[in-house]
Amino acid sequence: MRIERAWSLALLAALAALAAPGRAGVLAETGPLTLALAGPDSVTQTSLPFHLGAPARVWAEAAGVKGLESGRSGEAPEAFLDDQYLGPLLAEHHGSWRSPEALDLGAGDHVLLLRCSSVGIPKPCGLARLRVLSDAPGPPDPPQPAAAAPDCGHPTLSRRWPQRLHGQGLVLSVLSGRSQSAGILARLRPGQAWACRVRLPASEGRPLPLMAGFTVPQPGRGRLLVSLDRDFHGDAAALGYTPETWEPLTLTLCGGRLSVALAEAPPFQVDYPGPALDLELAAQDVELGLKPALP
Predict the structure, then answer these.
(1) How many CA atoms lie within 13 A of 155 on its CB side?
(2) Model confidence over 224-281: pLDDT tens digits?
(3) pLDDT tens string 46-61
(4) 18: in domain
(5) What range does the domain containing 166 cover?
(6) Which of 139, 118, 110 is nearest to 28 (CA)?
(7) Pairing state of beta strands 43-52 and 108-117?
């Protein structure tokens, strides 16, 4: 099974960045992100929290920015570090963006905000990666009392289905460029795994090129989004999933990383050092079926 090829072709840069531990200067990052408003005259925001162990100069960068043209700041999200304004997020230099200046921030918890607002009909935009950097990473936080490490080779598996769904499955069907969420389906703690079954779509009986992205829209909440990989130009039949068939999906949180495995494909992993994760599944431009895992 080779559905991981879709993930690696479309998300190689973003997933490699998320999975690379200990890179000097990177304080926090996420991606890909879709920045879209619910309707005219609406406001929404995306946050990326981070922590400084000591005072440092901090700035923000984005890569793979689409839909935001230079000079059209009225349609662009506005970026803030805490309550300090960084300006509009406009695509420059082949889709990259960097905040115009670095800010001196003190030790403690901080947040990068992207705030979208629109007058009239909103225009969706997106980016492949968003991150917060520093030219002088602070010293590590004081060591915490040692706790028993979970056994990542033998996680505790749960097949519990949300009570609100009364044991029934659901179908996420969004073909208009918007996304649809199933809401929170499970809570994971380190050393725990959760499983369900998914039914992936087909076009005239053949597999579609799919990609999966993981974002953290707010602290403690992670979103796994399944969508079309519009940059994939190979034979989608080689991706290896069986269309219109219920396949097992397992997500494991252990060792500061979230592992996502579909059917027999090798899992892809992203860093998630939080103490717990409320897991949300969503779809965009595809029909995705979800139902409980088999006993």
Answers:
(1) 21
(2) 988 887 776 665 554 556 778 888 999 999 989 999 888 776 778 888 888 899 999 9
(3) 889 988 888 888 988 8
(4) no
(5) 4-12+154-292
(6) 110
(7) antiparallel
Q: How far apart are CA 261 and CA 190, in angstroms?
A: 17
- Tell me which residue of 232, 234, 242, 194 sits closest to 211, measured CA to CA: 232
Answer yes or no: do 169 and 90 share one domain.
no
Cα atoms found within 13 Å of the Cα of residue 135, Cβ hemisphere only = 6
| SS3 state of residue 159 | coil
- Structure-token pair, residue 194: 């959760």
Residues in the chain: 295
Contact 244, 202 (CB under 8 A): yes
Q: Which residue numbers in the chain have pLDDT < 50?
A: 1-24, 70-71, 73, 119-122, 137-139, 238
- pTM reported for the whole predicted model: 0.51
Nearest Cα to Cα of residue 195 among 267, 146, 134, 121: 267
86 in any annotated domain: yes
Among all chains, which residue has been given the structure tokens 């509009």?
A: 88
Residue 28, strand partner residues: 132
Q: Can you tell me the distance from the alpha carbon of 17 to that of 226, in angstroms, rounded to the nearest whole number?
A: 19
Residue 190 contacts residue 253 (beta carbons within 8 Å):
yes
Neighbours of 198 (CB within 10 A): 21
Residues in contact with 203: Cβ distance below 8 Å, sequence separation at least 6, in sequence order? none
d(CA 239, CA 235): 8
User: What are the structure tokens assigned to 105, written together?
Assistant: 């921030």
